[in-house]
Amino acid sequence: MHLEQLQAFVLSNSDYGERDRIVSLFTLEHGRLRGFARGARNSRKRFGPALETMARIHIQLKQKEGLSSLQSADIITLYPGIRGALGAIAHGLYACELVECLTPEGQPMPRLYRLLAAYLEQLDSGSIDTSDRRMFEINLLNILGYRPSLDGCSRCGADFGERGALLQQGGELVCRFCAATGHTMPPPALRGLSSCLATGRFGQLFLDRESLHAAGLLLDESLATHSSRTLKSIEFLQQTCNMGES
């Protein structure tokens, strides 16, 4: 068991006993890992604020199955712009919990690491937009292999064209010949989500209100289907979104 130097995001943390901390990490090199930080609650020299959720850090870690040994952590950024705005905090915590909940342990996913980095940087810049949230979600599903079919019916393969699609349970999109009922997914919403997959930058694409509503129904259903648990951050996110609309 050798000491490795890794880049990581802190997805969550929990206290263990009076001195220690267990940290969920999403590393560039090994994907999601769990680390045991001995003495982290008392040692400001080795850890300080580096183990706060959403922190991007350099770590020294001895990897092993189950619970790795976290030796030290140095801060790359704590995203001060996020931590100064309630809405940004809610979106950042939600993004981190999604990654924690949907990713397998110990599987490198550099594309997803870069996606999370780009989204947190966008939030840190002061831009909080629902289109960016939906762009993060559809790209997350795409990287993980869970993306719903946006071009054609998942059952018969028929092109949706200008007729749109019908949303079924589990996030399945089908044509009007394969299902008689379901939430309507209009063509602009489908094209908008496809555009989210084509661009590599947040803040470049804005969906109209109708498309955002339809995309939200699809993505919320798809994410709930593939999540291993109900997200704790979703209620906080919904509350802050409602505050912004009032």
Characterise the protein shown here:
This protein is of the alpha+beta class and 246 residues long. It has 2 domains: 3-78, OB fold (Dihydrolipoamide Acetyltransferase, E2P), CATH 2.40.50; 81-245, Up-down Bundle (de novo design (two linked rop proteins)). 38% of the residues lie in helices and 22% in strands. It is built from 7 helices and 8 strands, in the order E-E-E-E-E-H-H-H-H-E-E-E-H-H-H. It has helices at 80-83, 86-102, 110-124, 130-144, 187-198, 209-226, 233-245; strands at residues 3-16, 20-27, 31-37, 56-62, 68-77, 165-167, 173-174, 183-185. The chain has a 5-stranded mixed β-barrel. A 3-stranded antiparallel β-sheet has the order 7-6-8. Helix 5 crosses helix 6. The longest helix is centred in the last third of the chain and has 18 residues, at 209-226. The radius of gyration is 20 Å and the shape is elongated. The termini are far apart.
